[in-house]
Structure formats: C-alpha cells, structure tokens
Write a structure and sequence with these properties.
This protein is of the alpha+beta class. It has seven helices and 15 strands. The chain is globular, with a radius of gyration of 19 Å.
C-alpha cells in the first residue's frame, strides 16, 4: 500500500504556484466541502505527453460553466499548470488530476457568489485502474442507484456531486468481490460504470449507450472514432438491461480505466474476445504515439 494521498513528497500546483504536497490544504469551511461546488478532470500522461490534454482543459471550463462557476484560468494557463506539475515531480508517465472549486469566503450558505473559485493540479504515478482485470476481464455488480435525469442535475458536467452514488455503488460492489458497478439511468436503460463508459459487441458490431444522461467521455469518443476508422459499425442507442444476455463481449473506457475488458456483469458473462483485445492494444499504441 502506498502512502496516504495527503502524506507524500512532491509538488502540487495551487492557485498559480507550486507548493509542497503536504501544504496543499483548504479551510474546513470551503464551500465545495459542504455543497459539492467542485468540478475536476482526470488525465493520463504517457511518455511526457498528456493524452487529449486540451480537450480535458476545455471540458473543465465547460463543467464550471454548467455549475455557474467561472474558472479564472484559460485553457493555456491550465495546460501550463499541468506540465509544470509533471516537470516539478520529474514524471513522464502519470495520472493528472485538475480540480476547481468554490473556496471559503464571505458566503457559507447554498449561495456562494462572494467566494473565490480556486484551482489545483496534482499528479501521481498510477498503474492499471482495475488491476489484473486488464487481462482477464473485470467483474461488475449492478448498482441499486440510477444515474439521474439531466432535468435534475447537469449530467454533462464532470462534477464532484455526481460521484456520490458512484462511491456508494463501488463500495457495495467491492463487498461482493466485484471491481465496479454498472448503473442504469433514471429510465431504466443501461448507462455506465462508476467512472467509465461501457461498450458491447454482438455479431461483429458494437453497441454503446446514448450519452444523453451520462458524461460523454473523451476516451469513449476516441474509441468510437477508432472503431469507425476500422469499418466497424457502432450503434449509439438506448440499451435495455435484458439485452445484456445477448452481447458477446464487453469493455469499459475511461482515462483511468483506459480500455478494460469486462468478463461478467451480475449473472451475465462475456468473452474477452478478439475485438476487445484489439481495441485495448490499439488504444495503448495511440496514447503513446
């Protein structure tokens, strides 16, 4: 087990400057801690280059806008901060976390217009998100919670508050010996895992949920482009849970998950087949190109 995340050596970028890792702290009355006024990005750096870095920075700013929270940094400034952190820590392969939040200020109720919007960038060396599931296929539970309607919360934002049920669902899954959990959305359609999008294979064609109530992941979009470039038909549609019995292969996509095969969801099993392995391998080559 590695050191706790608040007790490590290194540098973190915080509000425009690099600070010692252990000094990157916030006050207990930080608005985000009480009201989830926070957005973030997770990115991976491969051999000195952050994959789809600009797209992630652009999405961070958009997420802030969706939460009525203007981030006081440009895409160029966010990009520089990320690479400054990597250089300061001497890493060429790492996971990068950018987070923006409403800090402590004059407001300590639901409204927080008088409070500053702050931002930090941290990074750390991190291996496969699902461990050996990258080879043999992850096992997923089916969550009891559902992804919410876009009419109840800005589902297109990568916002901290949207992950509350993810934490609860992943804890429940791990207690059952699973790696993760699959959500249905508020209508009952297959949605996503706790931190990754999902794909299925049937008859040589690929099916993936319509992202109308979930985050349209950057890795998800990348993999769809890869499949279409190979001439493989991709059906972006609403998927009923009973269809899981008919799919032959399954995989997850995400910055942390990369492309991870799925071997089982609840009582449904899937082959870690040729297309799954091919896409995983080609994605690995793409991010290091």
């Amino acid at each position: 087990m590695g050191a706790a995340y608040d007790d490590r050596d290194g540098k973190i970028w915080m509000d425009g400057q690099l600070v010692e890792w252990r000094d990157a702290n916030v006050h207990i009355l930080t608005h985000a801690m009480h009201y989830a006024s926070s957005v973030f990005e997770g990115e991976r750096c491969y051999e000195g280059k952050i994959f789809k870095s600009v797209e992630h920075s652009e999405r961070l700013i958009k997420s802030g806008e969706l939460l009525d929270m203007e981030i006081p940094y440009s895409v160029a400034e966010i990009e520089k901060a990320k690479y400054d952190v990597l250089a300061a820590n001497g890493w060429t392969d790492a996971y990068v976390r950018v987070v923006a939040w409403r800090g402590a200020g004059e407001d300590m109720g639901v409204a927080s217009n008088k409070n500053p919007v702050r931002m930090a960038v941290a990074a750390w060396e991190w291996g496969a998100y699902y461990g050996d599931a990258k080879m043999k296929g992850a096992k997923l539970d089916i969550a009891k919670w559902k992804r919410p309607s876009p009419e109840t919360i800005p589902t297109a934002a990568k916002a901290a508050g949207l992950y509350m049920i993810c934490t609860m669902s992943k804890h429940a899954a791990e207690a059952k010996g699973c790696s993760d959990a699959l959500f249905m959305d508020y209508r009952g359609y297959v949605a996503e895992a706790t931190g990754a999008n999902i794909f299925f294979v049937k008859g040589g064609e690929v099916h993936t949920p319509d992202p109308d109530a979930i985050l349209n992941g950057i890795t998800r979009q990348t993999v769809i482009d890869m499949l279409e470039a190979k001439g493989i038909k991709v059906h972006v549609r609403r998927i009923m849970p009973e269809e899981l019995a008919d799919f032959e292969q399954c995989w997850l996509t995400g910055t942390a998950a990369e492309v991870t095969p799925v071997g089982q969801i609840g009582d449904y099993t899937f082959e870690v087949g040729a297309l799954t392995r091919e896409i995983a391998q080609e994605y690995e080559q793409l991010v290091r190109a």
